[in-house]
């Protein structure tokens, strides 16, 4: 039983992953789709055995995986970036995804079972497959001369939200802790821009942070609330940051 796998590729950045578009279905035939389904099932069984949430297939991520699989077959090489091809960050963005974490496994073997077995016995590939941060997957299979060329792309996806939606989600978390959230969009935005308005009373604490999960408050904020230090707040969503192809929510909280 033979399975070829390359050195694993993994790139992560603890920011937010946002879907902005969905892609067309791939052109896998029935046998290839069946093998991809087997890989998805095996992946989620492995994750379940470790107490991890299952991965949900994403059509845009599947499209990125399919295009890369096609390139591998055409070149006859297993690689995470072939000559003339963008890296995985760019490839994923090109199909309409903004990512916080991206990872990729590739392999060649006669069956999906062999591919999954080899990935699970390769520490870096296993780490990708069992990464607790990822929540979605795109799997593509191309069958040539009895061999399956497989690409499994992993990512973290969160819904795209407008600034008011972001602010509402953070405000809801504060309200659950008994904090009264006041209106003050212009005031919060002034702190986003680095030229805060000196309105009175001045906030006792200003926290500006990047996050991948708007349902979690920064530790400093949560601790202060737990100590009874703060009783009201103003929340603002700043312009999203973009670093190395990744996008993050930028939030500012003024606590009183």
How is this structure best described in words?
The structure is a single chain. The protein has 256 residues and is α+β, with helices and mostly antiparallel strands. The protein has eight helices and eleven strands. It is 35% helix and 27% strand. The strands form three sheets. It has a five-stranded mixed beta sheet with strand order 1-5-7-6-3, sandwiched between helices. The protein has a four-stranded mixed beta sheet with strand order 8-10-11-9. Strand 6 (136-144) and strand 7 form a beta hairpin. Helix 1 (30-49) runs parallel beside helix 4 (112-120).
Instruction: Please state the average pLDDT score.
Output: 84
> Which regions have little confidence, pLDDT < 50, spanning 5+ residues?
9-25
Rg, please?
A: 22 Å
Q: How helix-rich are the residues, as a percent range?
A: 25-40%
Q: Taking strands numbered 1, 2, ... along the chain, how are they ordered across the largest sheet?
A: 1-5-7-6-3
Measure the end-to-end span. Answer: 65 Å
Number of helices: 8
Q: What is the H-and-E element order?
A: EEHEHHEEHHEEHEHEHEE
The description of the largest β-sheet is: 5 strands, mixed
Strand content: 25-35%
Q: How many beta-strand segments?
A: 11
Q: Structural class of the helices, strands and pairings?
A: alpha+beta
- What characteristic shape results from the CA principal axes? elongated
